[in-house]
Amino acid sequence: MTARVGVPTLGRRAVAEGVGTAFLVAAVIGSGVAATQLSPDDVGLQLLENSLVTGAALVALILALQPVSAAFNPVITLIERALGQIDSRAAAALVLAQVVGGCAGAVVANLMFDLSAVSVATTHRDGPDLWLAEVVATLGLVTVVFGSLRAGRTGTVAYAVGGYIAAAYWFTSSTSFANPAVTVARTLSDTFAGIAPASVPWFLLAQLVGGGLGLALVAYLFPTTTSRAALLDPEATHE
C-alpha cells in the first residue's frame, strides 16, 4: 500500500525545492571536481563523468521529492505559473528557494573537496553559439518535463529529465546549464563546472527565451493537461 502525502504546504514545497536544488548543484560541481582529479588529462572523460553523475542525481532527487515539489529550476516554476498550476506567491517563494538552495549546494561542494567555501568562477562562457545552445537546451528540457506531465506519465518524468540532461551535456556546446538557479550557483565555484559572473546575464536570457519557446511548443502539442492532483500523485495516472 502506498502512503499518500496529500497536497503539500508552500513551506514544505519551498524546502523541497531548496534541498533538491542544493543537492543538484552539489552533484554538478562535486562531480566536476572529482572528474578533474581522477582524469586530469582527459577532458572528454571528465565531461562523461560529470554528465552521468548529474543525470543520475536528477533521477534520484525527482523520484524522492516529486510528491512534494521537484522542479529545481526557476524556468520550470515560471512555466507552472504561466499555466496556472501555481500562483504568483508560490512561484516567487519556490524560485527564491531554488536560488538559495543552489548557492548553498555550491558552497557545500567546495567544502567537501577542501576548497574555499566561495571562489568566484573565472571560466568565461560567451558567444552566440553558447547562447543558442542554452535556448535549445532549455527548450528541450521544458518539452521533456511538460510533455511527460501532460501525457499523464508522471512516473516517468525523473528518468526522462535525467536522461535528457545527461545527453544535453554532450549535444549542446554550452553543456546544457538550462537552469537559472544552477547557473547563478555555479559562479561560486572556480572549478570545472564554474561560470564567470560576467557570462551569466546572457545565459539567463537565453534560458528564459528557451523556456518561452518550450511553453509555446507544449501548449500547441498538448492542448489539454491532467489535473494538478494527478500531477502530485503518480498513482493517479496510468500509461
UniProtKB/TrEMBL annotation:
<dbReference type="GO" id="GO:0015250">
    <property type="term" value="F:water channel activity"/>
</dbReference>
<dbReference type="Pfam" id="PF00230">
    <property type="entry name" value="MIP"/>
</dbReference>
<dbReference type="InterPro" id="IPR000425">
    <property type="entry name" value="MIP"/>
</dbReference>
<keyword id="KW-1133">Transmembrane helix</keyword>
<keyword id="KW-0813">Transport</keyword>
<feature type="transmembrane region" description="Helical">
    <location>
        <begin position="131"/>
        <end position="149"/>
    </location>
</feature>
<feature type="transmembrane region" description="Helical">
    <location>
        <begin position="55"/>
        <end position="79"/>
    </location>
</feature>
<dbReference type="GO" id="GO:0005886">
    <property type="term" value="C:plasma membrane"/>
</dbReference>
<feature type="transmembrane region" description="Helical">
    <location>
        <begin position="156"/>
        <end position="172"/>
    </location>
</feature>
<keyword id="KW-0472">Membrane</keyword>
<comment type="similarity">
    <text>Belongs to the MIP/aquaporin (TC 1.A.8) family.</text>
</comment>
<dbReference type="InterPro" id="IPR023271">
    <property type="entry name" value="Aquaporin-like"/>
</dbReference>
<feature type="transmembrane region" description="Helical">
    <location>
        <begin position="14"/>
        <end position="35"/>
    </location>
</feature>
<keyword id="KW-0812">Transmembrane</keyword>
<protein>
    <submittedName>
        <fullName>Aquaporin family protein</fullName>
    </submittedName>
</protein>
<feature type="transmembrane region" description="Helical">
    <location>
        <begin position="91"/>
        <end position="111"/>
    </location>
</feature>
<dbReference type="InterPro" id="IPR034294">
    <property type="entry name" value="Aquaporin_transptr"/>
</dbReference>
<feature type="transmembrane region" description="Helical">
    <location>
        <begin position="202"/>
        <end position="222"/>
    </location>
</feature>
